[in-house]
Structures are given as C-alpha cells and as structure tokens.
Amino acid sequence: MTLWLMVVALLIGAGLSVQVGLNSQVRQYLGDPALAALGNFLVGTVAILVYLVLMRANWPSTGTLRAVPPVNWLGGLFGAAYVAASALLAPRLGSAPLLALLIGGQLLMSLVLDHYGWIGFATHEINAWRVAGAVLLVAGVVLIVRN
To answer: How far apart are CA 23 and CA 42, in angstroms?
Structure first.
C-alpha cells in the first residue's frame, strides 16, 4: 500500500469528522436530520456534476445504467442513512464517540466482507492479527465512549 494513498484516506477520514459537525449544525437550523442530509447530497451532487463536466466525463448509456443490478444502488441509501444519523447523533454523542462507533462498525463489517469476499472485495481471511486489531479498536471505542 503506498504512503500517499494512506495519507489521502486519512485526510478524507478527517474531513468526515468535519462533515458530521457541519451537517449537525445544518440540522439545528432546519430542524430535521433528513433535510440536513438532503442539503448535503444536493451540494455534493452539484459538486460532482461540475467535476464531471470539467473533466468531460464519458456519460453511461441508459443500457449501461440498466445493467447495474438494482441492489448495487443501495449504497446511496447507506450514505443517506449515515449523513442523516450523523446529523442527529453528533450533538447527543459528541464527535469522538460518534466517529469511534462508526469506525468500529465499519471495521467489524469490513472484516466479514473481506473474509468472505462479499460484494466485490478481494478475499482476506480473518486471522489472529486482524482479530487483535479489531479487539484493540473496540477497546479504543469503549474507552472513548465511556469518557
């Protein structure tokens, strides 16, 4: 794994913490986490559209879009649930506990997905090192949440 890819992932993770706080503030103004999520996705959609136009992207045909299995579009539902739940939970839990719990859930599910090679992931069997890492992360989550 190259260092610059790890740095990019770290920076994106840091940005997610900022996103949670900003979405939580939008929710306070609008009074509804779903409206905050909608605003988040509208801004993100416009940003991606501008990027695609500037990069002169090759747009998929309707046949290509129809070829995508419907279950694969559910990623958008997970994204919407994440943004709405984060906007609702951030003021109640705080940034560190919320993100620790989210990362803990992501890691545990990732171990299962990698182990079985589900939904397109390469198979990486669960081993003692991965279990030890997960245990340490869960212990960290407990320490952060117990505050």
So the answer is: 13
Distance between start and end Cα atoms, the chain: 34
Q: Which residues contact 101 (CB under 8 A, 6 or more apart)?
A: 93, 141, 145
Please give the Cα distance from 137 to 120 (Å, whole number). 25
pTM: 0.78
Number of domains in the chain: 2
Question: Same domain for 35 and 51?
Answer: yes
Q: pLDDT tens for residues 64-109?
A: 999 999 999 999 999 999 999 999 999 999 888 898 888 888 988 9
For the beta carbon of residue 84, count every other beta carbon within 10 angstroms.
Answer: 21
Backbone angles phi, psi at 127, to 5 degrees: -135, 180
Q: List, for residues 104-141, the tens digit of each pLDDT value.
A: 889 889 999 999 999 999 999 999 999 999 899 889 88
Alpha carbon separation from 144 to 4, 26, 129 (Å, rounded)? 28, 25, 22
Q: If you search the block for the tokens 């090192």, which residue do you land on? A: 129
| Domain span including residue 133 | 94-147
80 and 147 inside one domain: no
Domain end point (choices 76, 92, 108): 92
